[in-house]
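step=encode ok
step=design start
structure_in=
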């Protein structure tokens, strides 16, 4: 240790350099240049390796980013939350062509589970829409969605939309946040037939309750082929 055993962690040179750089870049706009290694070497009278160590720590923390051949810059804040995406968006994002095949779409009456989830009364009118979702021409998932009919006048008249979330967006009800429950399971014989996998093959079940601001607009069950689908999440610090 450079300054002897009694020196605390703040006495370490690389920590001093790191904390100095942290204070210099605090509030700096993303993309602005961080102090150069040469500057820091001169300022602190330390080895280049010590400066490197300090900068590495700030890069690892996500405060700085290195651009090869250009230098070190104040990083753009990382987006931590996963945006609420539709199947259509999710597949396009993966470079795949999404499709929506309606298996049935009908008016129904809410059972206790759906009623509770949508904040309506048992027996109220709902829309039950079942689809096979394909990507690049092959089955990806089966989706059952339950919607509050009162919120969606005329939904069952005319053709069904390709994207539910686009339709909800047009009505000013695009989901802004969701509760998802994810579970591993195996396909039933019927699901296996629809998904074109072996009966008993692994599937991923996703149950969703989607809200547009404070209003529950959708309850859904999606069953994905586990050989084709990986769920991607970005989690960050909560409130
Ligand atoms: C995802 C969600 C479903 C939602 C669907 C909408 O798959 N898990 O709850 O209904 O997206 O997708 P789209 O807008 O492509 O119809």
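sequence_out=
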């Amino acid at each position: 240790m450079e300054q002897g055993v009694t020196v605390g962690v703040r006495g370490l040179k690389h920590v001093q350099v790191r904390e100095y750089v942290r204070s210099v870049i605090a509030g700096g706009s993303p993309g602005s240049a961080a102090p150069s290694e040469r500057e820091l070497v001169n300022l602190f009278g330390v080895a280049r390796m010590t400066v490197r160590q300090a900068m590495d720590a700030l890069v690892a923390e996500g405060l700085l980013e290195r651009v090869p051949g250009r230098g070190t810059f104040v990083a753009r804040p990382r987006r931590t939350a996963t945006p609420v995406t539709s199947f259509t968006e999710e597949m396009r994002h993966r470079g795949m062509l999404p499709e929506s095949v309606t298996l049935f779409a009908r008016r129904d009456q809410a059972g206790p589970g759906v009623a509770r989830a949508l904040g309506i009364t048992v027996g109220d009118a709902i829309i039950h829409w079942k689809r096979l979702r394909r990507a690049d021409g092959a089955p990806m998932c089966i989706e059952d969605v339950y919607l509050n009919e009162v919120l969606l006048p005329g939904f069952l008249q005319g053709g069904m939309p390709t994207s539910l979330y686009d339709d909800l967006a047009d009505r000013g009800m695009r989901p802004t946040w969701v509760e998802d429950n994810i579970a591993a399971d195996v396909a039933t014989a019927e699901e296996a037939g629809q998904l074109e996998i072996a009966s008993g093959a692994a599937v991923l079940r996703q149950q969703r309750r989607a809200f547009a601001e404070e209003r529950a607009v959708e309850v859904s069950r999606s069953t994905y082929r586990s050989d084709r689908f990986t769920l991607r999440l970005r989690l960050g610090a909560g409130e």
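step=design ok
step=annotate ok -> Residues 86-88, 100, 143, 145, 163-166, 206, 208, 218, 220, 222 surround GLP (CB under 6 Å).
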